[in-house]
Write a structure and sequence with these properties.
Blueprint (H helix, E strand, L loop, with lengths): L3 E10 L2 E10 L5 E6 L12 E3 L1 E6 L20 H12 L4 H17 L2 E8 L9 H15 L2 E8 L21 H15 L5 E3 L2 E2 L10 H7 L5 E4 L4 H11 L3 H8 L6 E4 L6 H10 L2 E4 L1 H6 L7 H6 L3 E4 L9 H16 L13 H17 L14 E4 L11 H11 L5 E6 L2 E5 L2 E2 L2 H16 L4
Parallel strand pairs: 5-6, 6-7, 7-8, 7-9, 10-11, 11-12, 12-13
Antiparallel strand pairs: 1-2, 2-3, 4-14, 14-15, 15-16, 16-17
Helix pairs in contact: 2-3, 2-14, 11-13, 12-13
The protein binds zinc ion.
The site of zinc ion has 6 residues, from loops.
Length: 453
């Protein structure tokens, strides 16, 4: 493929909106230059152009139960009862099923404006397969859907603090230290030849590993980002305090060099002191606001993180919702509900909520996934989203008004085209594989739903 040029009526650059520019993309899919329009032959994109959004936290297999957990029994319903159902679904999947459902999920995520995904992958053994098989299934899925993937194989060892033995349902997740290191090393060779693939790792949570093992592991595997579920549930924080005398963020920061390599997923119950510590470290906080709301986790004080100069990113997590705007909308709305104010995350300097949140989450997400994305500038990969400029709700608005509308209304049909590495994957709000995969995916979901999922 040769290089391409796109005329952008408006493009969101690192320095703000640029009007009437031409973006040139190399044959390898990277932005070469963005210049004022002189090339009248470059085709005009159908709306304003913004960076593709990195999705820092996905569990692809959980898409299969999306929307199916709305029935409450007589007991209290919580994260823990939801988890039982999810474990049941894991027991029914094969690696082939995982590849199909992940391909379907990733195409939906691309339609939702996500152009790269961090897959926090812990069901290593499905139907007793070798752990490498499920990782390969996820890489194949990303290749078909045409999105960036940072695969984050999970190190999972225990059921709870104090090295509690794993439950039967957790056996497919369990890897010993040597097996985990070998898995990472094998995968490192496989991702090396593909620009869209990157590799990190993910100690599942401080309850599922021994924190004393982490510094050694990070030193043995010095490349790539490290993600961890940190403080999602109040019960988890209380168990951590009871077992160690410390809150999870404090415990982690006392055992490892917390820095730009780290992404702390669901720092929901971080204390004010924790937040200052995270902000100073350069680590990214990965928030999944729609899943956190669905599971009744709690509200992360994102305003305090941003005031302290911290970095945040978003993820789709359980994949109940698959549009980036829905996460940003929920992130801002939860702050409004708890602070009784509006446009909270814009900060005291003022500005537009749409642009503020999109730019922050794209930059934080790029760091957390170690993908060369998150900003439209030369040298970055040409991952971008084009809004539907002729949509009746967008036509005639300024670029900032359109981005505000995208984030506060969260309508999927506001996204017209999505490109990854300069390749158009979505046109007219529809991914090119949607029609072909609808039937096989529907059959898989119906089959699993028939087994009590
Ligand atoms: Zn998670």
């Amino acid at each position: 493929m040769s290089s391409q040029a796109f005329h952008c009526p408006f493009l969101l650059s690192a320095d703000g909106w640029r009007k009437d520019v031409v973006m040139t993309v190399s044959s390898a899919g990277f932005i070469e230059r963005i210049v004022n329009r002189t090339d009248e032959n470059a085709p005009t994109l159908p709306g304003i152009v913004i960076p593709g959004m990195p999705n820092v936290h996905s569990h692809a297999h959980q898409r299969i139960i999306a929307g199916l957990t709305g029935r409450r029994g007589r007991d209290e319903d919580s994260f823990w009862s939801w988890r039982e159902l999810m474990y049941h679904a894991v027991g029914l999947l094969t690696p082939t099923d995982l590849e199909l459902l992940a391909t379907w999920l990733y195409l939906e995520l691309v339609e939702g404006g996500y152009t790269s995904v961090g897959e926090f992958h812990y069901p290593h053994r499905l139907a007793d397969c070798e752990p490498i098989a499920t990782s390969r299934a996820l890489m194949a899925a990303a290749g078909k859907a045409g999105c960036g993937l940072t695969l984050l194989p999970v190190w999972y060892r225990y059921a709870g603090f104090g090295r509690q033995a794993p439950e039967v349902e957790q056996q497919p997740f369990i890897l010993g230290r040597q097996a985990f290191v070998e898995l990472i090393q094998t995968l490192a060779e496989q991702v090396a030849s593909d620009d869209l693939l990157h590799l990190g790792m993910a100690p599942h949570s401080l309850r599922a590993i021994d924190v004393a093992d982490l510094a050694g592991l990070a030193a043995d595997l010095p490349e790539g980002p490290i993600h961890v579920h940190i403080a999602e549930q109040k019960a988890e924080v209380e168990a951590c305090l009871a077992a160690t005398g410390k809150r999870p963020v404090e415990l982690l920061a006392d055992h490892v060099e917390l820095d730009e390599r780290w992404c702390l997923i669901h720092a929901t119950h971080a204390s004010d002191r924790d937040i200052i510590r995270i902000a100073r470290s350069g680590a990214v906080v990965g928030l999944c606001p729609t899943t956190e709301a669905d599971l009744g986790d709690g509200i992360f004080p994102a305003d305090r993180l941003l005031e302290a100069g911290g970095r945040l990113a978003i993820g789709s997590d359980s994949n109940l919702m698959t549009t980036a705007a829905a996460e940003l909308q929920m992130l801002e709305w939860t702050q409004r509900l708890s602070r009784h104010q509006r446009n909270v995350l814009v900060g005291k300097g003022g500005g537009h909520i749409g642009r503020t949140l999109w730019v922050q989450a794209a930059a934080g997400g790029a760091q957390a996934l170690a993908q060369p994305v998150g900003e439209l500038s030369p040298g970055r990969r040409a991952d971008f989203v084009v809004l539907a400029g002729d949509h009746p709700l967008l036509r005639g608005l300024t670029p900032d008004q359109q981005l505000d509308a995208l984030v506060t209304m969260a309508r999927p049909d506001f996204l017209d085209e999505v490109y990854v590495a300069g390749q158009r994957r979505v046109c007219g709000a529809v991914h090119h594989l949607r029609a072909e995969l609808s039937e096989p995916f529907a059959e898989l979901r119906a089959r699993l739903a028939g087994h009590g999922v």
